[in-house]
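So, can you check these C-alpha cells?
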Amino acid sequence: MSAKTGRWAGGRAVLAVAGMAAVFLLAACQPQPRPTPAPATPATAGSVVYHVRETLTLVNEGPGKPAQQNLWLALAPDAPPFQEVLKVDIQPQGYREFSDENGNRFVEFDFANMAPGASIPVTVDYQIRVSPYAPRLGACEGDLIDGYTKPELHIESNNPQIVDLSARLARGRATACARLRAFYDYIGSHLVYTYNGQDWGAQAALGPMGADCTEYSDLLIALSRAAGIPARYVEGLYFGSQDNARTEHAWVEVYLPGVGWTPVDPTLGRSSVSADAYFARLPADHILITRGRSPSPLRGGNYFSHLYWPGNSTKIRVDNYHWSLEPE
C-alpha cells in the first residue's frame, strides 16, 4: 500500500511531512492456523449474527492543540447475499458519512482544537448477520466484465514471472473457474505461511521470505488478472473461534462467468482439508469491511486513518485500537 512504512498486528506507523503528522493502522493479518473442516458444509450451515465492536482512543499528549485533526473509519457494508448490517451505532456523534469509488463507506470525524491532556474515545458497534455463501459455478462459461485486470501496487500482474506462471498453470484449462482453481491450488501447495509484518506484494510471495494473508491474496489476484480474470482485494475480519475471534484478515473476490463476484480465501484454504470450503464459497465466518487494495480515504492504511497538524507542537496518540466479535 502506498504511503506507509510497514505492517504490524495492531501496530501503527507515523509519517510526518511538512508540519503534518499522520498515524495509520496497518494491516494485521495475524497468524492463523489451518482451519479444520466445519461439521456442516457452507451450503447447509446457518447464518450467524455477530456483535462487532471497533474501538480506539485519541490522546493529546500536548503541549498544543491541533489546528486540524481528522479521523476516517471504514464502515462494514451491506453485501448481499452474504452480509447484512442490522444495526450500527457510531460514537461520538457529529461525523460525516461518505463513499469512495469502490462503494466502500466511511465516516470522517473533525477533532480540531483538542485540548492537551484530553482523550476522545471512538466506538462503532454493529449487529451484522453473516450467511454462508456457496454459489453454483455451473459451466462457468460466458463473458467477463471489463476492469479489475490491470496491475497495481503490490499486484504485479504484468511481472514476467507472474505472467509466465499464470500461463503455465492455465494451460489446458478451458474455463475461468478451472484456471482460478489451478492458481488457488498452486498457492496453497507452494507458499509457506509466515506472518511477516510487511507488505511485500504478489511477486515477493514467489520468493523464500514467506507470506501471510496479504501476499496470498495479492498473488491470487495477480495470477488471475494476468489470465484476464477480474479479481479484487477484500479486507475484513475472520471469526475462527472464541480464542481467535479478533483477527483482521484479507481475501479475494473473483468475477466468474454466470456467477458474478465470488469470494475465495487462499489463506484459509491452503490446506487440502479446507481447500474446498474456501474456494468460490465462504462459511459464515468472514465479515467484509472494504474492497480494493488501498482505499483512498484510508491514505495507505487499513480500517482507519488519522491525520493532524501541526506535528511540531502537538503529539496525538492513537491508543487501544481493537476489534471484538461475539456471536449472538
